[in-house]
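Possible regression after last week's pipeline update?

I re-ran a chain I had predicted before the update to compare outputs. Posting the input and the new output here so someone can diff against the archived version. Not blocking, just want to make sure nothing changed silently.
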Amino acid sequence: MQPLEAFGLVDVRVGRIVRAEPNAGARKPAFKLWIDFGPLGIKQSSAQLVALYTPDTLAGRLVVAAVNLGVRKVNGFNSEVLVLGAPDESGHVVLLAPDREVPLGGRMF
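New output (post-update):
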């Protein structure tokens, strides 16, 4: 498989967080997120973002997420997408996002 072909296997889309709350009982501190991906609907994710974000600062944000990696249970919560981020100098997750408004559900290319 060629690298560009492999890159295309992961379906990365833009969504907007519509709701966020603590995922109490998760092994590592995390938030439950509900993310609107437009035509794909609202998907759930459990994300370890508590060091730099609060539920109030997450609601309404655009995020980038892999939407075709399957479902994973986190403390009984179905995490359907993987929200993408990069570590800051302390190793805390900084969310990746478009730098301007784009249509929800838009696929990365």
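Follow-up from reviewer: compared with the archived run. The mean pLDDT is 95. Marking as no regression found.
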